[in-house]
Amino acid sequence: MSSFDWSPLAIWSDTETIAAQPEEVRLYYISSEPINGELELSARQQSTGVTQRLTMEVVETQTIVNHSWSGDSLCYAYKMQLSQDGASSFRELQGDGLVVHAPRASDGIGWLRGQESELVRVDASSDISLEEWLAQGEQ
Fold it and tell me: Is 104 helix (H, G, I), strand (E, B) or coil?
């Protein structure tokens, strides 16, 4: 949790975090490892350095084929939302810019198409399904 030497999943400004309600936060995530129920992200306030766990719970799952130079392999796509614990952590961190990290591959969560994963704020019109999100990435 204390090391931040890998690429962040998201960087949100203070105005973005203030505007977002916890129920509007979605994570679209692609991993080579299956995730059972929830995933812990780590979120650090930019000005204070305070770090908290943001627990995301799986809403939708889809198995997909990853095509790479080394061959095809199965991986998993997820749509997640903040759990109750994650929502209270998010509320505590609001009001400052946030840098959010996903677990490293060494923690057992592999990244195959990691740069395509994203943590986003949604509203009723932009809360798209996992299938719709995957289709956007293929264009």
Answer: coil
